[in-house]
Fold:
Amino acid sequence: MASAAIEMHMQPIIDLVTRETVAFESLARLARPGRSLLTAAAFVPGLSDREVDRLFSVALDQSLGALSTWLKSGIEVDVSVNIDPSTLANADCTAWVASALRSHGVPPDRLVLEILETHAITDERQRSSLSSIRGLGVRLAIDDFGSGHSDSDRLASFDFDVLKIDGAVVGALAAAPEQTIRRLVEYVRIAQLSGLATVVEGIETLEMAAVASAVGAQQGQGYAIARPMAIADVPAWIAGREPATSGCVPSFASVLAFHGRYGAGSAHTGTVDECPISAFIAEHAGGEPVGDWHSSQHGAENAGRSDGGRRLSDWLVHGMAAA
Structure:
């Protein structure tokens, strides 16, 4: 693997409420003369530990170099870089990170290092590296949360700052809407209880973005926002975005997500007139008593009344299927 053949491409992460770009994930691509770029999934598994370490150094250099240029031009974003557990086991890992930050003059808290949830961190050297990197002021993210079997153990073992929910979770929305929303709600609550920022990955439609926002996730990433792009293309992409017009209109799925955030038998907060889903329900209810079912979810005296909540959920799921 030649360093010159590695190109880092950037995929935006946006705030799901303000629609502003808050960060970019840096993704490795292998350039081949006269042929298409290879994604990391296609070439990283065949690399030796030494080559993986080298890839990390190249990724840091290119990513922080780009970030330094963006910050100087007024583009206030963070950048995240993936780090492999084998690199964490290298005694020089923290020194590489510190050196790259100094070289490019980037504040440490602008860098996020992402660790795959499915990768085991068991070696004491790995744990020491994580602690030392955290000590630099660099933030840590657990990536692809929900794809493995050790979610809670991993969160309890390390001091993370960001929880990134695996794209396969929201990707199941159309096939299993209620189950998907329950999982999203659960993971967002885990993040909130742990004091972590939440990013939902794999957002491929504006409806998915609306669902992620409705369950309380803070940030989103995926093709509906933008595909990974060359570093040189980032400033023009940011300049061309219109966050105020990039919002998501309410849908059966996003209203189901909002409802699911409280649970079918729990009281929604506030009054029914203040509820953000009231207008949608009034517009789409037709002759059905959906407004009554919704009203039954408001007020402390209604907490635990699952009949109206269940009927509202069923109506929303049917609306998704019919849309």
Remarks:
- The chain has a mean pLDDT of 89.
- The domain at 3-238 is CATH 3.20.20.450 (TIM Barrel).
